């Protein structure tokens, strides 16, 4: 089992969309568990309309099993531990736990996924002790970003966060890349200069296919699998497997 977190301390960079589409691609030949750790619960709503409450208790009580919030999805090889808005009140409670309890809870959550080939964590943007503990317990962390001067400048901050909490940084990948915009091409080169081989080769283009598929409750491959936008997620999933 490989546990993979998708994290960025900035919201709106495509973490949830990446988890949904990468999870779908991985599930073609693997068993996948998605854990929605964002209180917005967008990932949960995509995968099931029967979300279970309880993740807030799972993350603050060592005796509560992750099975409490486990849901089947319409995909045979994908299950999900769902989030609700109650998760937003969990951070303060988690921080009051001892370090031993915090570590134990993170290990409990991830070890629950031992029967799966991949466990994908959709992390919230808020930096907290809970976030740090969970990403440090994962096998690897990937950072999705949208190109922009502020985003590029913020990459060292995010990688610094991962380093400080002992997390393994797998790499950074680009979302909403506009090949017709010369500024995007220039910023991509800046990112490569900054991160070297930690910049993934897979690039997710800006595309109505991706936006419309999520709005329609489908992955990009289900919506228009023959398009370059949909195929980009298959490439990303393969590269993530290689780097995990």
Explain what this protein looks like in three dimensions.
With about 240 residues, the chain is an alpha/beta fold. The protein has helices spanning about 15-25, 40-45, 55-60, 90-95, 100-110, 130-135, 150-165, 180-195, 210-215, 220-225, 230-244; strands spanning about 1-5, 30-35, 70, 80, 120, 140-145, 170-175, 200-205. An eight-stranded mixed beta sheet has the order 3-4-2-5-1-6-7-8, sandwiched between helices. Helix 8 (about 180-195) links the parallel strand 7 (about 170-175) and strand 8 (about 200-205). Helix 1 packs across helix 11 and helix 5 crosses helix 6 (about 130-135).
Tally the helices: 11
Q: Give the C-alpha Rg.
A: 17 Å
Structural class: alpha/beta
**Which H/E pattern describes the elements?**
EHEHHEEHHEHEHEHEHHH
Helix content: 40-55%
Strand content: 15-25%
What is the CATH first-level class name?
A: Alpha Beta
Average residue-wise pLDDT: 94
Strand order of the largest sheet: 3-4-2-5-1-6-7-8
CATH fold-type name: Rossmann fold
In total, the number of domains comes to: 1
The span between the termini is 10 Å
Low-pLDDT runs of 5+ residues are none
Write the CATH architecture name.
Answer: 3-Layer(aba) Sandwich
Strand tally? 8
Say which CATH homologous superfamily is assigned. Answer: P-loop containing nucleotide triphosphate hydrolases
Please give the largest β-sheet: 8 strands, mixed
């Amino acid at each position: 089992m490989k546990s993979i977190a998708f994290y960025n301390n900035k919201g709106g960079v495509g973490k949830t969309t990446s988890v949904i589409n990468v999870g779908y691609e991985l599930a073609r030949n693997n068993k996948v568990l998605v854990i929605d750790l964002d209180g917005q619960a967008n990932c949960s709503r995509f995968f099931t309309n029967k979300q279970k409450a309880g993740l807030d208790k799972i993350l603050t009580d060592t005796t509560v099993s992750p099975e409490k919030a486990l849901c089947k999805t319409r995909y045979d090889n994908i299950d999900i531990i769902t989030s609700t808005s109650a998760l937003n009140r969990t951070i303060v409670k988690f921080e009051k736990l001892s370090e031993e309890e915090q570590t134990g809870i993170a290990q409990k959550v991830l070890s629950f996924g031992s029967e799966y080939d991949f466990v994908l964590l959709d992390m919230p943007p808020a930096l907290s002790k809970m976030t740090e503990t969970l990403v440090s317990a994962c096998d690897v962390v990937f950072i999705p970003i949208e190109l922009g001067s502020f985003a590029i400048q913020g990459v060292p901050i995010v990688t610094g966060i991962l380093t400080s909490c002992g997390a393994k940084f797998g790499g950074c990948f680009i979302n909403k890349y506009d090949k017709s915009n010369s500024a995007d091409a220039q910023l991509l080169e800046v990112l490569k200069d900054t991160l070297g081989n930690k910049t993934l080769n897979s690039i997710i283009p800006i595309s109505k296919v991706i936006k419309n598929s999520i709005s329609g409750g489908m992955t990009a491959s289900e919506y228009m699998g023959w398009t370059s936008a949909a195929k980009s997620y298959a490439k990303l999933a393969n590269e993530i497997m290689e780097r995990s």
